[in-house]
Amino acid sequence: MDAKDILGLPKNALPIQEKKSKPPKESQRKPDGISREVYALTGGLAPLMPAVDVNQLKRKAQSDNEKITWQWLPFTNSARKDSLQLYHWVRVVNGIPPTGDYSFAKYNKSVDVLKYTDEEYEKYLTDPAWTKEETDQLFDLCERFDLRFIVVADRFPSSKTVEELKDRYYSVSRAILIARALSPGDVATHPLVKETYNASQETERKRALNLLLSHTKQQERKDVEVLAQAKKISEARKASKASEESELPVLSDIGSLGADKATADTVNPSTNSQIPSSSITAPVSETASVIASLRMLRVYLRSYALEQMVQAASSSAGLRTIKRVEQTLQDLGVNLKPKVPTKAVCAEHLELRKEILTLLNLQKQ
């Protein structure tokens, strides 16, 4: 007796599961052009590097009438002036050698260096720092080395810098072009005439580049920190300027109007007893302080004075009131900033703003 007999279970309680037949694997055929060992290692996977199509490596089928041979034939290069004859292997079809110039002669590029006569030199090209012999030698070297001024400076006999050689060459070439032209407008678009060479700027550029390349890692990190700090300061200034412009972007020149004009433009307390006295006395004191600061400057821009006076006049007003002043100016067709900021225009502009501000204060009361 076992546990199945005690529990009353049949002897074969679990059905026998039939094994599922797996589908046969499809055998992959080894591709042509690859050995059996390599195919067994890769397992038919795609190569890491793209393979070249075998068809691209096949040469076009030759016709039955063509007979191709390779012959050792002489050739001359048109880029050479000594008519040197050399030999190379040439593909010959049906016994007819190829004709034409050497295939690599087209890559021989040379610079067209201007030539001048003795008369032109005496008339247009004289320079106290240069003799005619030095100028002739400079142009010969420039033509020989295709304006490679580093090589020209190395071969030049006198101790002239690269910048001096460039300056002399381009100034002479520019003078020749202008002298030979019928009118200055004919050569105005020429690169040598349009873009003049600046030797002092080139020297300063090389000095700055040399200074930059000689920086150490510590100096580079310091420069990065300085630039980041400068960026933060610039962003903070832009934000403060934007906030000031949103409050009241108005400017005016006061000049000789003085404190009397500012006092006269303010609201008279007797006109409306309901207006608080703080809204009247504050602009007066602010205007007086601005005039005093401008007198200390002695020299200042009229636009700067206009800006300071407008800010002083609207110091007691809120941002909402200032925006209403700007809206009123736009409704009247008046520019927020005078296009022609003369002394009289700025004074009238400031007076108009103060009158609008007074009107808004009266409406508010």
From TrEMBL:
Keyword Nucleus: yes
Chief localisation class: nucleus
CDD domains, A to Z: SANT_DMAP1_like
GO biological process, one term: chromatin remodeling
GO CC annotation terms, alphabetical: NuA4 histone acetyltransferase complex; Swr1 complex
Disordered: annotated span: 1-34
Ranges of biased composition (kind: Basic and acidic residues): 17-34
Localization of this protein: Nucleus
Entry keyword set: Chromatin regulator, Nucleus, Transcription, Transcription regulation
Pfam families (UniProt xref): SANT_DAMP1_like
Record-annotated Myb-like domain positions: 126-175
Gene Ontology MF term list: transcription corepressor activity
UniProt xrefs under InterPro entries: DAMP1_SANT-like, Homeodomain-like_sf, SANT/Myb, Swc4/Dmap1
Identification of the protein by name: SWR1-complex protein 4 isoform X3
Organism (species): Sesamum indicum
